[in-house]
Amino acid sequence: MANTIIVALLASVTVALSSAMVAWGFAWFRFPGRSWLFGLVLATMMLPGAVTMIPTFLIWNSLGLVGTLVPLWAGNLFSSAFYVFLIRQFMLSLPQELFEAARVDGANQWQLFTRIAMPLCRPVLAITVIFEVQASWTDLMRGLIYLRDSSTFTVPRGLKSLVDVYGFGGEWHWETLVTASVITTVPLILLFLLAQRQILAGITSGALKG
């Protein structure tokens, strides 16, 4: 559980920040080929995970990080095409007058991003964090690929080991498997209950003016 919390926090925070920076560039900077480059970023979502699985493993293996938790979250440092699209569309709906007024007052691009864009994008950033926490919490594939020692197992990888021990090849211990599944599901339910206000704010943010 502790390993999963660490991975989920690092993965969600890194992907939110990196995707927000990329989305800011596509939303507010004008440069030749911007639309083509943004389309190329979105096209990466059409690549199946199986296509990049082996090259990604070879990269982490060459860095000596296989068997650690790093491969489970560090890839988010390079943003995610889906979250870039989501945050960019939200940024395009922000009133441009706020940024123009701040620019007149002498704010640079970094100040515009950190002091105006990021606070206003709090609802969509919260949704990004929630989505990524859920994805990291339930990610079994990368745990099977990169984790070797039981001390580094995440929740899905731990459940898989329980199935191997109490399931296939022996007598099924349903009470153990069901109890473990319920315990690992409760944190996601609590996260949704705590963050539902931010989710609703993200849904209704475009309905109000002023």
Automatic annotation (TrEMBL):
Report whether Isomerase shows up as a keyword of the record.
no
Q: Which UniProt keywords apply?
A: Cell membrane, Membrane, Transmembrane, Transmembrane helix, Transport
Task: Classify the protein's membrane topology as the record does.
Answer: Multi-pass membrane protein
SUPFAM superfamilies in alphabetical order:
MetI-like (SSF161098)
Which InterPro entries does the record associate with it?
Answer: MetI-like, MetI-like_sf
Q: Which residues cross the membrane?
A: 6-29, 36-60, 72-91, 176-195
Q: Where in the cell is it found?
A: Cell membrane
Which PROSITE patterns did the record assign? ABC_TM1 (PS50928)
User: Principal localization?
Assistant: membrane
Q: Which family does it belong to?
A: Belongs to the binding-protein-dependent transport system permease family.
User: What is the name listed in the Swiss-Prot or TrEMBL entry for this protein?
Assistant: Carbohydrate ABC transporter permease
Report the source organism: Bifidobacterium fermentum
